[in-house]
Amino acid sequence: MKKPTIKDIAARAGVSTACVSMILNRKNLSRFSEETIANVYRASQEYGYTPRSQQFHKNPKKLILIICPSVMNPYYATLVQGMEQEAWLRGYMTLIFTTYWDTKAESEALKLAEEPFIAGVIFAMFPQQPPQAEEIAHRIPMVTVGDRNISIQIDTVDINNFEAGRMIAMHLISLGHKHIAYISTTLTADHSSRVNRCRGLQDEYQNSCPSGSVTILSEDVSSDKERNVVDVEQKVGYSLALRCLEEAPQVTAIVAINDMVAYGVRQALIDAGKKIPDDISLCGFDNIYPSRFHGIELTTIEHSIVERGRNSVRLLAEKLNGLSDAWTSQAITRVEYQSRLIVGNTTGIARESAPIPPDSPKQPVPPAPDGND
Length: 373
Known about the structure:
The protein is α/β, with parallel strands linked by helices and 373 residues long. It has three domains: 6-54, Orthogonal Bundle (434 Repressor (Amino-terminal Domain)); 63-159 and 305-337, 3-Layer(aba) Sandwich (Rossmann fold), CATH 3.40.50; 161-303, Response regulator (Rossmann fold, 3-Layer(aba) Sandwich), CATH 3.40.50. It is built from 13 helices and twelve strands. The chain has helices at 6-13, 17-24, 34-47, 74-89, 103-113, 130-137, 161-174, 192-208, 223-228, 232-247, 259-271, 305-321, 323-326, and strands at residues 63-68, 93-98, 120-123, 142-147, 155-159, 179-185, 213-219, 253-256, 281-283, 300-302, 334-337, 340-342. Strand 8 (253-256), helix 11 and strand 9 (281-283) form a beta-alpha-beta unit. The longest helix has 17 residues, at 192-208. The chain is elongated, with a radius of gyration of 24 Å.
């Protein structure tokens, strides 16, 4: 049988050979309609045609682009390692692009994603620019590790951060903590997990402990600071914990946005002469591996980091192995992992609360991201 050529693909799809070449090599795709792109891919699949740019020892391209905001926080390092474990088993290589929560860097990463040597993309976080990511996901297989309470037209491996916040609140309420503080790095709608954890705390306290309060303290961190200060999360936790002690003496428990921030809070409490949990209880989120070290043993939320990383690659591999369907199906796959409370040595029965000062800090929570419960 005659070997198929680009002319055969063009004739079957009813377009020019130049059009076929650009689409199959993912160049200038914005010039073509979704219908034209789908027709070209369908024709190439029918003929079993693979463009030269995708041929490497007769196998399709095998490089996955991972877009990640940080390499310092063990949460992201562990998540990416889970991705690479699965990628290695499936014969894929990985390329990591670190954005440090910089939207310009994320845009550059998405431009890189359209290069012919990239097979697919995984976001290690919810994209900061969902419309741009969704638009590119129409052309390139893409998966994001996201949040159940956020709506996005990209296949997603989820956790429910709102429910995770409620779990922490229920635990603290059961221990008699009426007044707690929530401490976070930049708390805006661009950081949906941080907002949803906060809202989960607030919701549970409003329903189960209406006489209680959730004091919110956050510090904005620029992308430059994220990039240049390796221990920025611990520093934020440290400074906000000292502020909490001074401005909100009624607080008997502090909930940090993640375990890394919680470590900074822990050091500040120790330096201030406070005993954990006798004077103040402390919680985090994510259950990163240092949180189990002797002497830390943090109360936190287990988020199945390694398995979620591995599952994101499995989901992407399914899209890559069935590429013709990816261009025609409108279905979005969501895989949700259940959060689990890990009770460590940092939470205990609440001490008697001090009176609430009239100038106790009250910081508004950003508007809920789209799709929030």
